[in-house]
Amino acid sequence: MERKYGTHSELKNVKKKKYAQTFLESDDFNGYVTLVKIDQVTEPLFKQCGKEEICVIDEGYMVLQHFPLKKNHSVTTMFNSKGEIVQWYIDIVRENGIENDIPWMDDLYLDIVALPSGEVIRLDADELEEAYRTEKITKQQYDLAWEESDNVYKMVTDGKFPLIKLSNAHKKLLEGKLSEK
């Protein structure tokens, strides 16, 4: 299980970025939200999503991430340089938390990608199976990952997953707080 942070320091092709974060508590969302604006990259990053290859990281792009408390998922929304959503990437997680004032998630391997076209793609079941087989995760964590993935997938395909609807508003909220990091 890998711990990933809201600063997205794992993006090695990003050379210059700005960062902002906040804590939100409302009827729709309770947790941390981070925003990374990418100013300079060594090269764009493309990912295969279903039948198409899409650019997910490039200069001018923004990466918004939700870390809901007491939930077993985290949502990363990628915006292109025009402010249009490229994809919602939903990680299934053991938990979300905060350390040294930086939000984090403990990734449970399964992922769901939702595209603006309406296509929804499940990813990385093989990684979850391998983690369980090699005892990197417990049976309880394995079952949790599948249960959460099934629940989130159903909400997304039914149009009832709230974080997809909140992406633009939360991006606007954080844009004014961006600073070098």
From TrEMBL:
Coiled coil residues, start to end: none
UniProt cross-references to InterPro entries, sorted A to Z: DUF402, FomD-like_sf
DUF402 domain sequence ranges: 61-161
SUPFAM superfamilies cross-referenced by the UniProt entry: FomD-like
Name of the protein in its database record: DUF402 domain-containing protein
The species this protein was found in: Fictibacillus aquaticus
